[in-house]
Amino acid sequence: MAARLRAVRPHLALVTAGGPVAGGVATAVLGGWLPGLVVPVLLLAAGVAYFRSRRFRPRRWPTAGAVLGALSGAYLATTTPWLSPTAVLFGLGGWVVARRARESVLQPYTPELADSPVEVPWQARGARGLELLVSHDRITLSGGRGPFRLVRPMVALSGVGSVEQVMVARRATLPVPGVGELRVTVTPGPAVRITVPPGEWIVPTDHGREIARLVARRKELAGA
């Protein structure tokens, strides 16, 4: 796992430093407002701080790469009008490079991921945007749309009971226990059932066995 993380460092360095360096060079070459160099310096510092704090959470790398790239491109556009397309180009480039880095860390899934501190996301089948996140000390239901954008049900590994793959016979909308009115739509097929206080989560996924082994191993490592 350490080898995978080392291998993506150049990608993250490019995402973090590429835009700000280009902005600094453009300012110097084109005779821009030199005090404006504080902008690429701040973008560089923000990128370094973000990716350092999220180095074990690759799920959000592409979004961060796109934002940093777009902001760097927007700054370049202020130096000269003909560079205005760089906001889009740098944003797209940042997303592509960071996404490749994310996939290099997370795929293919192997048992060594369980022994690492890397947060592993599992996409729910048939529930667009809903993911089960397994980190080194907790599990979380997270989504980029709907009520899961505002509420992220989270349980410490010490509170997780049994985790097993089950088969769902028909489509159903099930409540998330202990979290107000949240619901998860479960489609026919394999799912993972996770016992949590005060009930259970049922998440549709074809990777129930892998999730069960991952949670069991991380609970063992955490002494939970």
Automatic annotation (TrEMBL):
Q: Where are the transmembrane segments?
A: 33-51
- Whether Membrane counts among this entry's keywords is yes
> Which controlled-vocabulary keywords does the entry list?
Membrane, Transmembrane, Transmembrane helix
Out of the domains of life, which is the source?
Bacteria
Per its record, how is this protein called by name?
Integral membrane protein
Query: Which species does this protein come from?
Result: Actinokineospora diospyrosa
